Structures are given as structure tokens and as C-alpha cells.
Amino acid sequence: MESSKKVLDLTVRVGEVLLKNGGEIFRVQQTMQMVAKAYGAAEFHVYVLANGIFASVEEHGNNICKEVKGPEASQEGAGSSQIRYVPLSSVHLGRVAAVNNLSREIVAKKYTIDEAWEKIEQIDNIPFTSQPLQVLVSGLGSSAFCYLFGGSLIDSVASFFSGMFLWCFVLFLSKCRANKIMLNILSSALVTMTGMFFFHFLFGENMDKIIIGSIVPLLPGVPLTNSIRDFLNGDYLSGTIRMIDAVLVACCIALGVGIVLRLFPIITGIAV
């Protein structure tokens, strides 16, 4: 069997990349077990939460940890168990798909541990979609949903520009490392002001449809879907964590919209 420590390190790294990019709990656990078994770690145990991984490996039923008495002592075999905190972050399904392919290739014995480690690091560095394309897609999505929810073509045009402006602001706040709560409150407030500006001063027929369509890029669709899947798979704790995260985002969006709708007529004297 390959070095148990190296197998554990690689397996936890694979699980971490999957989990932080939107992988479901059962997928993370199953993939980690497959990778560990492929490298000969028959006694591998893993417990995954929405924001953490607990994993250990044993040899012949015995924990392989040994006492380390000083920095000069050998680290081989040390650390048979690992705890890894994985904060809830942005979803990147391209990385999830790449890890799935890598796990199949590992099971097919195509990579040594060192080669697999290089591959997982490459996957973790797969870039997100370019920012100009993100802005464009945000605008297109906003206009499409505005029309889907009953807006007119002119409302969809207003939502297109409002959605693009929204995502530029989201990227700016992300660059400033704003926390998720403030990002969603400020972004939803801004997009509401933008929609009201278009309706009252430029063009638009249904202010509510413009605002609803423009808000769609902020909605936590993937976390909510993964939460439901976790519940169905019996991962109630992880499902609860992701559900709370999705509900918190929705509440922040509602708060930002409500504040602007309340203050706009008071400040401008224009009825909403």
C-alpha cells in the first residue's frame, strides 16, 4: 500500500475541492472513499458536513499515528486523521465535474499519488468565467426572467442594464472582501434603486417586474437545491446548514429591497 499519510492528504484535498465548489455531501464522501480505496486504504473513514471534513485512515485495524517527539522526528505515518474547515463559498461546477473525471481515472489506475496531486491542484486553479462575460450573462439572465415573470420587452431591456450594473457592483464588493450579508443587502438595495430609476426617469412599464428580474442573479439557487438533496440523502445537519445559508441570503435581499422601497418615496416624494 502507498504511504497512508500521502493517501489521506490526497483524499482530503480531493474532498475539499469538491465541497468548496458546490459538491453535494454524498458526492464528496463517495468520491473520497473511492480515491482512498483505489490507493489501497481499505480502512478509510470520512464524515463530511457542509463546511467541514473529518477523515481518518487505519492499517490492519490500528491507528497509524505515532508519537512525534521533536521537529527532527520522522513524520511518516503521522496525522492518520485530519479535520479540514471548508467555508461556504462560490459555486464552480466546472471544478466539480473535473474532480469527478479525475476520481474515475484514479479508480482506473491511471495516476500515481503524486500525479493525482498535481491534477487536483490544476483543477483547483481552474479560473472562474471572465468578469466581462459574468456581467453580460447577469444582464441576459435578468432580462430573460423579467420577461418570464410577465414584464414587457421594454421592461426586459431595463432589467438587462440593471442586471449588468448589479454584477459590476457585486464584483466590486467581492474585491473589497465584503461579507455575504452586507454584499446581498447592498446589492439588492442598489438594484432596486436602479430599477426605480429606469421606471421613473428613463423607460419601463412595470417597476416590480424590472426589479424582480434584476434580483434573480443574487438568488441562492444552488445552495437551496443542494440543501434539499442533502435532506433527501439523510444528511440533515448539512442540509440545515445550507438551508440556513440560503434563507439568510433571501432575507438579506428582501431587507435591501424593502429599505429602498420604504425610503424612496420619503426622500423623493414620488409614489412607488
Output the keywords.
single chain, 272 residues, alpha+beta, four-stranded antiparallel sheet, 10 helices, 4 strands, elongated
Query: What radius of gyration results from the CA coordinates?
Result: 24 Å
Strand segment count: 4
What best-fitting shape do the alpha-carbon axes yield? elongated
Helix share bin: 55-70%
The rounded distance between the terminal residues' Cα atoms is 70 Å
Structural class by sheet pairing and helices: alpha+beta
| Number of helical regions | 10
Poorly predicted regions are 62-79
Oligomer: single chain
Order of helices and strands: HHEEEEHHHHHHHH
Strand content: 5-15%
* Biggest sheet details: 4 strands, antiparallel
Overall pLDDT score: 84
